[in-house]
């Protein structure tokens, strides 16, 4: 079991220093797709935290108790994980719509968008079996369930932080007289590039 | 803002109070240049030709880029607002003095073109243009810009050392301090003995590090003229001092060495890329200081000012949202 300090470093390393959006460039579709509106980006971030946690927990359990003991994980993990994540999230979405309309309006409508999102799959896979995706963060040979959860929370918090701060930046872009050819997505790409430049500076902090 | 832009953007009419002021953009930029002048002139006197060459290249590059951009885009010339000159001077002061000329020119071009003009010009840039230029060349030509001894720096530092070593050589005092920390203090690098050279005449570093005292003087001028808000430099320098003390180092050395003073007084305080709400400014300053300190002690490079401020630029609009002042007379929805 790791110490609290190690877990804190794992969280910071997953959230900021190896930010999944701005240093790994995974999950860029929601990053550009929903960042046009600040409130939408909040809902999406919430949904990503929720889905990633759920997905990592389930893939960790399936990997540890089913795929690895049977020796079929190496070639079955992608179909298995996609199936698990997609069906789980769809089920939760249906459940949420019936049970809590408020929660559904806040984040439920984003769930179908990210059921098989690459960022979710990458994080869930990495949490279950470190090293499959080159996430640039050294997680060792395998993670305990607690560490996998902290790691997932870190990644999803970093996703949300980057998405929300980017949405706030784009609100300023909306009122800026940018050249006509650069309006909209081109300017968003340039801004994301400059934001990513800032994250280059924190690469390698604490040796993470 | 150019006339053709105002034509397509409807003017905003607001209620009173409307405050009439004689403050102009070029007036503020002039004061920033005046505040930077003592440190810049002293750097030119101390280092001579390399410093003058650096200022000419950086300012020339930023001014020509802005002029050319406006000419090509058929917009009103904005060179007279002075912001391109400020960007050029700040860029020059943040670079190693002997950087190859083409890197400086590239940094100036990127600073203005990608850092400012593409966003619609002054007032709309999300990031500090000078820092965008510097970060761009730092990442693109890391090998050339690396803080290795004799690589772009005016001269290297040789300091008598203890513990079985005759002398230690480094690019800057910060690099030597970092090496000494990594070696567990084996070199016996005396931080307190560095106050005098850092304050008055420090040739081992960028142009903006020649004299900390003159930078503080310039910062004070801006503070007393009301041009910059005290919250940003206070938060920045305060957090830097406290954290470096907490990390077991000398707070005064860590404040006057490296880019902290230039960053805290002249770069983080950029109107456009810093938050507007008062509490947000304090949080922004503290964030800059924390990132700078953590980056300096636990980062992969000896100094972290550039990326600390760029990072905080990136979340400045978010801070403005979080610390948005309460509007009276409105009932919160769903509240």
Question: Would you give an account of this structure?
Answer:
The complex is a heterodimer of chains A (208) and B (335). With 208 residues, chain A is mainly α. Chain A has one domain. Chain A is 69% helix and 0% strand. Chain A contains 8 helices and no strands. Chain A has helices spanning 4-17, 28-33, 38-70, 73-99, 101-107, 118-128, 145-174, 185-200. Chain B is mainly alpha-helical and 335 residues long. Chain B has 2 domains: 25-146, no CATH class; 176-322, no CATH class. Helix content of chain B is 57%, strand content 2%. Chain B is built from 15 helices and 2 strands. Chain B has helices at 3-8, 25-47, 49-72, 83-94, 101-113, 129-140, 142-145, 173-182, 195-200, 212-224, 231-246, 251-256, 260-267, 278-298, 305-322; strands spanning 157-160, 167-170. Chain B has a two-stranded antiparallel ribbon. In chain B, helix 10 runs parallel beside helix 13. The longest helix of chain B has 24 residues, at 49-72. Chain B is globular. The model of chain B is unreliable at 1-7 (pLDDT under 50). Classes of the chains: A mainly alpha (208), B mainly alpha (335). Chains A and B meet through helix 7 and helix 8 of A and helix 6, helix 14 and helix 15 of B.
**Radius of gyration of chain A over alpha carbons?**
18 Å
Task: Encode the helix/strand succession of chain B as letters.
Answer: HHHHHHHEEHHHHHHHH
Q: What is the number of independent domains of chain A?
A: 1
Oligomer: heterodimer
- Mean pLDDT over the full residue set of chain B: 86
Assign the structural class of chain B, choosing from mainly alpha, mainly beta, alpha/beta, alpha+beta, or little secondary structure: mainly alpha
Radius of gyration of chain B: 21 Å
Q: What's the order of the H and E elements of chain A? A: HHHHHHHH
Count of alpha and pi helical runs of chain B:
15
Main-sheet strand order of chain B equals 1-2
Biggest sheet layout of chain B = 2 strands, antiparallel
- Structural domains of chain B: how many: 2
| Portion of residues within helices of chain B | 55-70%
Helix content of chain A: 55-70%
Structural class of chain A: mainly alpha
How many individual helices of chain A? 8
Distance between the termini of chain B: 40 Å
Chain pair with largest interface: A-B, 29 and 38 residues
């Amino acid at each position: 079991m790791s110490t609290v300090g190690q877990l804190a470093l794992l969280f910071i390393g997953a959230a900021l220093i190896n930010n999944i959006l701005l240093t790994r460039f995974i999950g860029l579709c929601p990053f550009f797709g929903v960042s046009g509106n600040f409130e939408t980006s909040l809902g999406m971030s919430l949904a990503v935290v929720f889905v990633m946690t759920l997905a990592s927990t389930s893939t960790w359990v399936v990997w540890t108790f089913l795929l690895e003991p049977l020796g079929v994980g190496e070639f079955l993990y992608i179909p298995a994980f996609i199936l698990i994540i997609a069906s789980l999230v769809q089920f939760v979405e249906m459940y949420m719509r019936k049970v809590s309309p408020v929660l559904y309006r806040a984040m439920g409508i984003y769930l179908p968008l990210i059921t098989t999102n690459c960022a979710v799959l990458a994080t869930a896979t990495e949490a279950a079996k470190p090293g499959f995706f080159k996430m640039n963060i050294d997680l060792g040979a395998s993670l305990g369930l607690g560490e996998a959860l902290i790691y997932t929370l870190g990644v999803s918090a970093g996703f949300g932080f980057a998405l929300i701060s980017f949405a706030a930046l784009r609100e300023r872009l909306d009122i800026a007289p940018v050249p006509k050819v650069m309006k909209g997505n081109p300017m968003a790409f340039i801004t994301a590039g400059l934001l990513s430049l800032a994250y280059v500076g924190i690469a390698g902090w604490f040796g993470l | 803002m150019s006339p053709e832009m105002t034509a397509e953007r409807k003017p905003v009419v607001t209620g009173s109070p409307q405050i009439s002021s004689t403050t102009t953009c070029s007036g503020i930029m002039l004061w920033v240049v005046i505040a930077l002048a003592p440190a810049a002139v002293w750097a030119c006197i101390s280092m001579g030709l390399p410093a003058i060459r650096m200022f000419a290249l950086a300012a020339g590059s930023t001014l020509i880029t802005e002029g050319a951009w406006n000419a090509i885009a058929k917009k009103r010339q904005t060179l007279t607002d002075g912001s391109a000159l400020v960007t050029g001077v700040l860029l020059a002061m943040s670079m190693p003095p002997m950087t190859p000329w083409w890197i400086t020119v590239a940094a100036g071009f990127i600073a203005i073109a990608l850092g400012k003009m593409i966003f619609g010009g002054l007032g709309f840039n999300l990031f500090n243009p000078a820092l965008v230029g510097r970060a761009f060349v730092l990442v693109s030509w890391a090998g050339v810009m690396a803080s290795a001894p004799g690589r772009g720096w005016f001269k290297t530092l040789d300091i008598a050392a203890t513990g079985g070593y005759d002398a230690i050589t480094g690019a800057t005092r910060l690099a030597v301090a970092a090496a000494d920390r990594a070696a567990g203090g084996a070199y016996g690098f005396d931080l307190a003995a560095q106050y005098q050279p850092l304050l008055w005449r420090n040739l081992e570093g960028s142009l903006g590090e020649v004299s900390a005292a003159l930078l503080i003087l310039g910062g004070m001028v801006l503070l007393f003229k009301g041009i910059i808000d005290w919250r940003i430099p206070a938060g920045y320098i305060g957090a830097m001092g406290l954290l470096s003390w907490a990390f077991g180092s000398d707070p005064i050395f860590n404040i006057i060495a490296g880019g902290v003073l230039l960053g805290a007084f002249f770069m983080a305080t950029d109107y456009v890329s810093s938050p507007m709400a008062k509490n947000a400014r304090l949080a922004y300053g503290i964030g800059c200081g924390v990132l700078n300190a953590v980056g300096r002690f636990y980062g992969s490079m000896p100094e972290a000012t550039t990326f600390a401020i760029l990072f905080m630029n990136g979340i400045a609009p978010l801070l403005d949202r979080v610390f948005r002042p309460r509007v009276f007379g409105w009932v919160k929805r769903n509240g």
